[in-house]
Structure formats: C-alpha cells, structure tokens
Here is the input.
Amino acid sequence: MPNLVKLASGSEYLLQGNEAIARGALESGVQYCAAYPGTPSTEILTSLAAIAKEAGIHAEWSSNEKVATEAALATAYTGLRTISSMKNAGLNVAMDTLQHINLATLGDRKGAMVVVVADDPQSHASGDEEDTRWAAQMANAPLMEPANFQEALDMTKALFELSAEFSIFGYLRGYTRLAHSRGKVKVGDYKKADTKAWFDRSKMFTPYIAPPKRAALIKKMAEIRERFEDSPFNIYQGPEKPELLIICSGSGMPSSLDAIEELGLGDRVGILKLGTLWPFPARTVVSHVQKAGKTLVVEESDPFVETHVKAAVADARLSPAPEILGKGSGHQDYVGENNPDRVIAALCRIFGIEYQSREPEYQEKMNDLIGKMVVSRGLAWCPGCPHRASFYAIGNAIKRDGRDPILASDIGCYTMDAFPAGTQITNILHCMGGGFAEAGGLGQLAQFGFTQPAIGICGDSTFFHGAIPALINAVYNKSNVTYIVLDNAITAMTGFQPHAASGRTATQDVTSQIDIEALCKTVGCRVEIQDPFDTKATTAKLMELLKDDNGVKVLILRRKCELLRMRQEKKHLYKVYVDTEKCKGDKCGFCYRILRCPGIAYDAETGKAKIQPALCAECGLCADLCPSKAIVKEERA
Here is the structure.
C-alpha cells in the first residue's frame, strides 16, 4: 500500500480504486475520516489511517456505519471536510441519517462531506447484489460513478467541491472491480489541510419544517442537474450518427469498448459514458439518443440508468419513439458483473452477427481439462480458525439437547458455517446484529407453544456494531435466549481491523478496551466464558445454558484468530503429524470429512489422512478430536 501523502504531484502511479478515492480525499483537504470495515470498501479508510498522523487528519474505525456517518456529519458542521465510506450492506445501517442530511444542509461554514459506498455485483463478499444508486435519488444527493481509476480520484475531488458549494453531501458509488483492481492514476496537488473546527451554536441543523427546506433542496438539485448536463465526466465517443448508441456507466464503459473492438463495430456503434448519474442529465442523453438508430443501456445490477433513460426519452416525446434496449428487453442480465462477453452477446443479437470467442475444439479441450485438473474451492474457515471448533461444539450441543434448538447467525467469518465446508447448522442468516435480534424474538414465543431453544450468534466486532441493542431488548422484554459471542480479538473477515475490544484504534494508538463480559453482566445477563478448542467443555456449558430458562444467557467463546496469533507470535504451537499405523482412513475420515480442515487431506497412495504442511496451522485441534488418536501433536519449545 503506497504512502498517499508522499505521491509526487503530477506523477502517475498504479493505484487501487480505493486508494485513488483516498488520495482524492486528501487532495480535497479532508480532515475527518470514518468507516466500518466492509468489503469492497475497506481500503479507503485503511489507506487514510496509515498516513493519518503524517497528514494531520483523524481516521477511525467506527462501531458501525451509522455512527461513522453521523460523526462525519457533525464534523462537517464545524467547517471541516469529511468522508464516510462503507459497503453496500453498510449503507442500510446509515440510511436513517443520510435521508435527512441534505434537507438540514451542512450549514454555512463551508464544510463538505462525501459518502462513498462500494457495491458488490456478483456478491463476491456480500449476501446480495444490492444496488445503492437508488439511495442517492431518495436522499437528493448528487451521485457520481467512476468508470476508471483516474475518475475515482477526480470525482472524489469534484464531489467535495460540490458539497462545499451547495452545503449538501455528495455520493460516490464504487464497485468491486474498481475498488480492488489497480490502474494508472495521475495525482494532483496535495497540501496538508489546516482548517480550524468551530461550531456556530446559533444554528440548528434539523430537517424539520420540511416543506421550505425541501423546496430549497429541489432548487439546488436543479442547478446541479444543469451542471451535470455539461459535465466532463459524461463522455461520448464514436460516429456522429451511430446505428447503435451504447449508454453505460461504471464498468460498462471498458466492457463496451472491448466488445466493440472485438467485433470491429467502431464505425457503427457509439458510446455515451455517464459519470454523473443523479441528478440525471436527461437533456444530454436525449440529444445523443435522437441521433442513433437504437440505444442499448449497459450497467450492473438494477436498471437504474435504463429507467432514467426511458423516462428522459418519454418526456422528450421523440417521434418516432426510439428503441431502448437493455435489461427490460433481455439484452442485458439483471444479475452479476459486466464483462465484454455480455456486451458482445447483446451486440451480436442486435446486429445479427455470428460470433464465437473460441474454436469448438479448443473449448471442448479446455472444458475437459477444467473437469480433470481444476479443483473447486468453496468458502471455508482458515486452518486453525477457532470458529471451526466453536461450531463443532455448538453442533454437538444442539444434537444432544433433543429439542431442535434454532440457530440465528449474522455476517462475519462464522458465516462460513452456512456453506458446504461448514457444519451447516445455521438456520437464520441475514445481517450484522440480526442473529441476536431474531433469536431474541424466538425466545419470547413460549406463550404460543414454542418449545425450541433459541440461540443467537455474533462475532466480537459485530457485537459492538449491531448486537448490543438486541441484547438489551432481550433483557428488557424477558426473552429466554442463549447468545454466543465468538470473540477472536479482531475484525478478521475484512483484513484484521481493530475494534472496541481490541485496545487499538485505526491508527494503532492504545485505547480503552471495552469488556464484552462486563457489559453483558451490567445489563443483567448470565455470562460464561470458554475456549472453543476445549470442545467438550464448550459443548457441556452450552447444553447447561440451553436448559437454563432464566432469561438471557451469554456464552463468550474466546480464542484469538489463528492468523492474528501467528502474526503476533510468529510460531506454531505444536508439531502435528499423522500416525499412519493408527489412522483408519476412509473407515473413519473424521478429520477431512467432518472437521473439514484445509490442513488435512486424504492421501490416495496410502489410503490415510495426511497433514498438508503448506496449509496446516498446527493448532492441534484435529489431534484433540481424532477418534482413533491417530493425529499426534507435540509442543514446540
């Protein structure tokens, strides 16, 4: 990761999309940066936190996205420039605040605020393909979407200027392929910001008395729309009167360029790339549509651009009515990421072109090789992950309880349980903090004849993010529920970011450690702590808690993430190996079929289990659990 402060003005660098956004914020004079880690947005704050002290800025991992947004908002009131970044799912948490900001304005101190939301088409690291562009329209916030890495930097700067001028927040939409790829970026001037924060207490920032405030906001958005009609971020290239006009945004631009080049359609197809998506530049769109024979809209996820293109054309009452193709016509998919093949398929259909990317014989050979040589690797816990032991013990307790306990979980490394490599004992899985709230609801159903015990699970970072209100609600409303906090001492899933119980801030300063055990006891819970690697004790303790009908019980399964421990201690705990004389191979298969640790495999030559040295963390869990005692662990000096 480059030091963003030390990049030389006017020079070109290979930057990740998220790094380009962070650099754009620095060049804009940002002084307050807040986020909650969430893929694919995490590196924005990570990049800023790495140089926070050098740049004289504040960078924090907030408890959740709503807190991050509200902290950044209040800071903007004092005249500073602020940024809040999050992933698509995180936007849902921050929406309550975002819907009000632009009605209340940012005041007249010339502060500015940019909100970056990174969407995840194809759901690489998300539960869904949520398209957050609609949120900008709902919040009446100017929305830009970069199509390349340079635009990621430039649009960030443009939104800060727009925000300061109109006293409203600006919205930048990122996405996975931009966020986590690298490309050439020419950086601009950077100067350490030195604005002094001051709050004018004669002002009150509130969206109430909404009609006049809404009228003022609508007027601002109308002025911004006029600017967007002539924005340099909206670019046309191609013939003056194309047979087909492609209107695209974001990743649709490179995909369309590649497709046109591959099919040799440069003299027949034009591309209008839109970078300013809201307020929608309707006049610009109509001026290009009426010059083309047909129009194809290329975008990811929802038909956001397509919907507004159709509305703009309808309002213009063009005659004859132009044909608008896209998701609605079946020329583009509603699901997944853009790529050149998708655009090629649409162009071939429109122009009646026969096209095959590979010769049939080559494709057949490739498919055969894939079937024989490529191993399917699904999502799985890392070797040594404490969650593997936790879910093994939880599964045993559920089986032995005999009343079919219901397990409600949420988002984190423990989500892997729901995938084939997990134990798949999870019953309900939606969002961060949802496991506690849902289990709390189930724990109140005794009056309706419900007899199944309710278990809610969250991680330590998620506990602070979204589970505490649900915990308090369960205590207050006398739910009979068992909560499990999987405490691995870090926000592991997104890259080992610290949280409120880790004792370190985003800039690695020492800070107070919030005690999960003490907090739970303070609100009136029975609290127990176990090491998940002691699976027998963990199973027994959970069974005991499930039989306790006296309100809210909390079981903290505490063991440091193995990757974090290895980083800190730089040594394996044990030497682990298989005693082939004792190993029963497929007659047992416990270690590689049930435990499913990637560090253990079946050896076809010997018919026994084998340790894979390149993967094994040598944590010793398999040795503790092996029914035949065929796996040996020896303590290292």
Notes: The domain at 4-229 is CATH 3.40.50.970 (Rossmann fold).
